[in-house]
Write a structure and sequence with these properties.
Layout lengths: L2 E6 L6 H13 L2 E6 L11 H11 L6 E5 L4 H8 L3 E6 L4 H15 L2 E6 L9 H9 L10 H15 L3
Parallel strand pairs: 1-2, 1-4, 2-3, 4-5
Bound molecules: 4'-phosphopantetheine (PNS).
């Protein structure tokens, strides 16, 4: 029984993330999608909102659960009894992702499986989607419909608070 953690900021969750979660669910017995807050990033959604969106769009996968975590990812993995971290890998992120995987393994021995991003999503990131949406571009190709709608609404609220 192998339990994997799919960590990320998911701000917001994209089709690229869902591709990695679905492939992780095919590889491992159970998958915990773990919403972390990357302190270097200016978040659009709260962690609780991201958990809610992910729970909705992952509902079809019975072995996948969604939760949020804080602190070190390796500590969360240990608490949850997860042996593997499963993440998507875009070609531009190789050095950083490998360094994080090595650091996490050094810390507690937890190993990381890096799944090359599906080619159709290789250019998609939450931060680019936020930028496109903020400048009025069409984001429907990159996000599940309810997430795209909430993203547009949140950006609109940010642009014209009242
Ligand atoms: O989607 P992101 O922004 O690439 O996700 C980053 C995340 C949340 C997975 C990463 O920042 C993380 O693991 N944060 C937890 C803190 C931690 O363990 N830091 C040491 C990493 S080696």
């Amino acid at each position: 029984m192998v339990r994997a953690v799919c960590p990320g900021s998911f701000d917001p969750v994209t089709y690229g993330h869902l591709d990695v979660i679905e492939r992780s669910a095919a590889l491992f017995d159970t998958v915990i999608v773990a919403v972390g807050s990357n302190i270097a990033k200016n978040a659009l959604f709260t962690p609780a909102e991201r958990v809610e969106m992910l729970t909705e769009v992952c509902a079809a996968w019975s072995t996948v659960t969604v939760t949020q975590f804080s602190g070190l990812l390796v500590d969360f993995c240990r608490t949850e009894g997860a042996e593997v971290i499963s993440k998507g890998l875009r070609s531009g992120d190789v050095e950083f992702e490998v360094a994080m995987a090595q650091m996490n393994r050094q810390l507690t021995g937890v190993d990381t499986v890096l799944l090359p991003t599906g080619v159709q999503w290789s250019f998609v990131s939450s931060s680019l989607v936020r930028e496109v949406a903020g400048l009025g571009g069409d984001i429907d190709a990159f996000l599940p419909p309810p997430v795209a709608e909430l993203t547009r609404r949140r950006i609109q609220e940010r642009l014209s608070p009242s």
